[in-house]
Amino acid sequence: IAFSYQAGREDAPALCSMLCSGTSKCLGFASIALKRFGHGDKTNAVRATLLTQAAGSLLAASTLYEAEDSDIGTKRLECVDALFALLGATAHRKDPHLSLAVGEALAAYADAYSPDGCQWTYPDGYPSMPEEFDESYARELPPHAQVIYTMLHRELIANNPHKRLACAPALLALVGRAAWKCNTLPASVKRRAFVKAIYDRISEIQRSFLVLLADPKIKQLGRESCQLGLAACYGLSAAFDGQDTRLSPAFDGQDQDTRTDGTNVLNEQLLRAFGQSQSHGGSAMMETRNQQQARLGESSTGTSNAADVNVEDHLTEVGGVDGLGEAALGAFREMASAAVILNRSDILYSLMLLSVSLPVWKNSINYNASSLLGKAIDGRSGNIEEIRMALRPHMKQLIPRLLRACNDPNQQTRDQMTDLWIKLTGGGADSRTLIHTHFLHTIDTLMDDASNKLWRARVGSCSALAEVVVGRSWYDLGGGEPLEVGESVPKYSNCAAARLLRLFRVVVRSLDDVRINVREAGEMLGRSVRSLTTHLCDPSLDGDSSNDDSDDPYASNYSSVAIKEKLVTSASASTTVLPWLVQIGLNQNCQEASGFSVACLLSIVEVSRAETLQPVLPELIGSLIMCMSGLEPAVLNKLQVRVAGRDTSINNNGNSNGYDNLERLRLQMAQSTPIAEALSKCLDMLKNADVKYQKAVIPQLDSALRCGAGFATRAAAADAVSSLCATSPAAFKFTGSSTSNPTVRLLRALYYASERERGAGARDKMTHAFGNLAALAPPTSVRSLAI
Questions:
Q1: CA dihedral 160, 163, 164, 166 (to 10 degrees)
Q2: DSSP codes, 199-233
Q3: What is the pTM of this model?
């Protein structure tokens, strides 16, 4: 009988009286077998699953029977109880997919028989559903009402977390069957008792899915079941809009809002649960639970509907306008936020459908997009490809949020949104093409979110920026002319220079963030921005050299137009970045931020041409000299002093031999650093620069000698003076012999610094530089020092 009709599309036939006795025995055997293989020592998840499927077919086929004296009704109720008992049982813990099979069996039992015009009987004395679960009331209900009532009022509020969480796939099977029938079969199925009963309780079912979704112990199967269940609620409600939605007699006490505009009510309830309230729709976590309670307490209007989702008993974190955990619903918060920004609530359901990844959903037609949503998305059939095409016009707004969510600090959110990103964009080359198409809007949005008040948004934005900015060209960033430091530029200026400086500000701000996660993301972004800056400032083009014997590093197979264009853009990038790094980046109080600035400076100096660096060489040389001691570990100075205190041997300079030896080692270390190499390159460039730039270096050296905190800085300044005396003597030719003459001031600074210097190594360098400079300084200034 079970296989003699098309189950799910036809009503079960009447069971012949001759078969009632045997069917009753089969139902009893099925109940015993379900209990035996679902619990205890003989637990067998595979057998329990197969028996569950058989029990569902058996219950559906035995719905209508003729023998009045048969105990088949009692056996059917016992079999239904055995199916409910499998939720959270030992077999379910071994195979969580058992709960989905249980739900499908219960759905087959509840929807087996419902011809047009049939009248169902309900218990006497119960005009409405009792608030507390009543076993006797449940047994007197028709199959569709019994299953829904038991699921909502007993299983979903069970104290056992295994049983409670196992209800998610089972409840999906019930709602999914109703949505599948409404979206794929003729309109007459909307009059079936099971479908109408599900629709009548759709608001409560949606709240149940939300409570399960927020549970911190929910697993992937349960989480994806809740996602599909929420989409099925929306698809079922959309299918019923405009239809006759008269309620069943037993559920006559339902809220009238569900009958008038159920789809809008579901959308508002779902967006509110995911943190998208009307007052704070721009961010899913804009206000905390305490802030929400304070706001609701001050409100003169009634109670907010947000209290309908009572999830406080299932949460371990605080946050969100509905009290939902900040990390528990991170992916859905991002989806809801994107739907609010686009003013399209249906996009939320599309994104939830695209983010499921378990293969079990692909093996059944009841859980695909067409079955759950039907034509609820833009009036189209809801298959995955059409959903993806329907969302393409909104990708400009979606891409920044999806990229940020793909780099969320929560692993669950990150994995879920990564799957959604691949399904929505296609992954690989298709994803890169989409990012490139909307690149400017993407990085502008991410840079705004990098200063968001929510630390998770800052982490995701910095990590996403680190992935998308690497390897971009000057024209990818917007092109345009270079900018000077301090020049007034609109925040959203559409030029590459403004975006590049904003990237540097984002890096410096994230490296000094109070959250360690943001600082780690800032370090990753700093490496990407440094790589981008080096690429932009490098005037050479990638490619094979046109002449292997050529000494010109910029000669290549590229056309002269491309080479000239690259020289112009590299000069623009260097002119924009170098002044900012010298004047602002190196003066940051945060050690990590100043270290990032130094690393960028070294990279730019290594690849840039002399003509590009020439305008900033004076300030650059002064900054590099000041960095010689600034980045040296402070513990070395303490070690040197302690060594001097313990060493009893005194040399001719009045210092211990250990002190002078350690000083020489420190000087050797300082001279072998990348900063020293960059300084040497800048000094080599200076000898070919204009005299005005050479003369501008002298005040910088004087300032380094007078203001430098470490002897490594003073020693580097003395070496620079000696180098300039040998290569660029014209730099010291100033008029006058008073202290207004920069050369005279530098000479005096060297004289007094060499007198005060305690270490022999640094003092020798200063004495040598003083002698070289005295030969070029005005004679009167040298005589005044000699007297």
A1: 150
A2: HHTHHHHHHHHHHHHT-TT--HHHHHHHHHHHHHH
A3: 0.72
